[in-house]
TrEMBL record:
<dbReference type="InterPro" id="IPR001048">
    <property type="entry name" value="Asp/Glu/Uridylate_kinase"/>
</dbReference>
<feature type="site" description="Transition state stabilizer">
    <location>
        <position position="39"/>
    </location>
</feature>
<dbReference type="InterPro" id="IPR004662">
    <property type="entry name" value="AcgluKinase_fam"/>
</dbReference>
<dbReference type="Pfam" id="PF00696">
    <property type="entry name" value="AA_kinase"/>
</dbReference>
<keyword id="KW-0963">Cytoplasm</keyword>
<keyword id="KW-0418">Kinase</keyword>
<keyword id="KW-0067">ATP-binding</keyword>
<feature type="binding site">
    <location>
        <position position="96"/>
    </location>
    <ligand>
        <name>substrate</name>
    </ligand>
</feature>
<feature type="domain" description="Aspartate/glutamate/uridylate kinase">
    <location>
        <begin position="35"/>
        <end position="275"/>
    </location>
</feature>
<keyword id="KW-0808">Transferase</keyword>
<dbReference type="GO" id="GO:0042450">
    <property type="term" value="P:L-arginine biosynthetic process via ornithine"/>
</dbReference>
<dbReference type="GO" id="GO:0005524">
    <property type="term" value="F:ATP binding"/>
</dbReference>
<comment type="similarity">
    <text>Belongs to the acetylglutamate kinase family. ArgB subfamily.</text>
</comment>
<dbReference type="InterPro" id="IPR037528">
    <property type="entry name" value="ArgB"/>
</dbReference>
<keyword id="KW-0547">Nucleotide-binding</keyword>
<dbReference type="GO" id="GO:0003991">
    <property type="term" value="F:acetylglutamate kinase activity"/>
</dbReference>
<keyword id="KW-0055">Arginine biosynthesis</keyword>
């Protein structure tokens, strides 16, 4: 039998839970039928417990009528395999020098191991996930990305690509039929060859092409921080530009920020940078008023 004080504690806990559910309701209604592109990476992709909570969240999103589209990375997994087979990893300006042999490994790891692991994880939790790369139906067209050297010359670093165009028909078809697309960031060149593309860039461009409601990046940071390391919860693209100009946003964060900024400027309603190390970060961001990370308002959203 429970005592009086435990009854009141139970009641409090129940009412907190009820409040959370009630807070979620307007968002469930508002987001029913919309597409959200989710960039999956970092700890959320390697920690067993975080993997579970991610999979449960994605399946729940689908169950309440949201259409999640997953884009994943896999840099550390590629490094591991290259190291195992004794192939050197060389980076220029943060980009992997990718000869044909390396590209084969990249494609094996991204389109094979990592993609199928995520797909299977979602399916195990009751989703209907299907894994693809940009070479499927040639839906992500890529061109070679050159690095500019300090002397302003163009340097060829192999099969590293940038997005030329995305044909969304395949993804839309999958979504319509209830599937959760899981996309590995590999694109296809003019000759049918594979290109390795940065996953943040693919997620941003895909969100843009799909005119998604949201682009959500799961990262290993709590969000965008100000000079005093405090979380900035809501920002406009203009705020972001100011933070870049005054040096608050540092190098490491810039590629991610640029990908979100581009999406925000090209029709994606809101973009979010959230902490993938927090269990259920996706649900907390989407279904609560305050969220857990940084929300960047799209160009036409109200500040
Ligand atoms: N970091 C934030 N301020 N998040 C607010 C999220 C609000 C709402 N749940 C949405 O997804 O649109």
């Amino acid at each position: 039998m429970s005592t009086d004080s435990s009854i009141s504690l139970d009641t409090m806990e129940a009412s907190t839970k009820a409040n959370i559910l009630a807070e979620a309701l307007p968002y469930i209604r508002r987001f029913s039928g919309v597409t959200m592109v989710i960039k999956y990476g970092g700890n959320a992709m390697t920690d067993p417990q975080l993997k579970e909570s991610f999979a449960k969240d994605v399946v729940l999103l689908k169950l309440v009528g949201i259409h999640p589209v997953i884009v994943h990375g896999g840099g550390p997994q590629i490094n591991d395999l290259l190291q195992k087979i004794g192939k050197d990893n060389q980076f220029i300006q943060g980009m992997r020098v990718t000869d044909n042999e390396t590209m084969n490994i990249v494609e094996m790891v991204l389109g094979g191991c990592v993609n199928k692991e995520i797909t299977s994880l979602l399916n195990q939790h009751g989703g209907h996930a299907v894994g693809i790369t940009g070479r499927d139906n040639h839906f992500i067209k890529a061109r070679k990305l050159y690095v500019s050297t300090p002397e302003n010359a163009r340097q060829d670093i192999g099969q590293v690509g940038e997005v030329e165009s995305i044909d969304t028909a395949l993804i839309e078809e999958m979504v319509e039929h209830g599937y959760i697309p899981v996309v590995a960031p590999v694109g296809v060149g003019e000759q049918g060859e594979a290109f390795n593309i940065n996953a943040d860039v693919v997620a941003g461009k895909l969100a843009e092409s799909l005119q998604a409601e949201k682009l959500i990046m799961l990262t290993n940071t709590i969000g965008v921080l100000d000079k005093n390391q405090q979380l900035l919860s809501r920002l406009t693209p203009a705020d972001i530009n100011a933070l870049i100009a005054d040096g608050t946003l540092q190098n490491g964060m810039l590629p991610k920020i640029n990908a979100t900024l581009q999406a925000a400027m090209h029709g994606v309603h809101n973009t979010h940078i959230i902490d993938g190390r927090v269990p259920h970060a996706l649900l907390l961001e989407i279904f609560t008023d305050k969220g857990v990370g940084t929300m960047i308002l799209g160009q036409n959203e109200q500040a």
